[in-house]
């Protein structure tokens, strides 16, 4: 048996990738059921709330109220992210960041539709959190 070339490995990987991907009609059916599910909308609202609280609390820690140090801001960011992940992780995954959501969509761990709505909800939550603090 001869060793495969790089092109051979790439073609083999692409064939396997297309075998795993569901057909177009199955993806449309999944999206229709996804829109109608209560869990989907709970998760989207959960992402909005989690990003709202993350933005509000971390930005509030940075505002110079009374001499907050860099260590206090870092601890605040860590504790807030951990707490929100525990609160919203089981509902929506606790991504709280459009870049993380985009990575999950790219890796096909999340549907494009769910990812797009998560990103809209995350941006809306971040804007609302910053506006409330302002």
Fill in the keyword field for this structure.
134 residues; mainly alpha; Glycerol uptake facilitator protein
Number of strands: 0
CATH-defined architecture: Up-down Bundle
β-sheet strand percentage: under 5%
N to C succession of SSEs: HHHHHH
CATH superfamily: Glycerol uptake facilitator protein
Annotated CATH topology: Glycerol uptake facilitator protein
Helix content: over 70%
Distance between the termini: 68 Å
Short note summarizing the structure:
It comes from Priapulus caudatus (Priapulid worm). With 134 residues, the protein is mainly α.
Task: Write up this protein.
By secondary structure, the protein is an all-alpha fold. The protein has a single domain (23-133), classed as Up-down Bundle (Glycerol uptake facilitator protein), CATH 1.20.1080. Helices cover 80% and strands 0% of the residues. The chain has 6 helices and no strands. It has helices at residues 6-20, 24-36, 38-62, 70-92, 98-106, 112-133. Helix 3 packs antiparallel against helix 4, helix 3 (38-62) runs parallel beside helix 6 (112-133) and helix 5 packs antiparallel against helix 6. The longest helix is centred in the middle third of the chain and has 25 residues, at 38-62. The model has no long low-confidence stretch (mean pLDDT 85). The chain crosses the membrane at residues 40-65, 71-91, 112-133. It is found in: Membrane. InterPro entries: Aquaporin-like (IPR023271), Aquaporin_transptr (IPR034294), MIP (IPR000425). It is a multi-pass membrane protein. Keywords: Membrane, Transmembrane, Transmembrane helix, Transport.
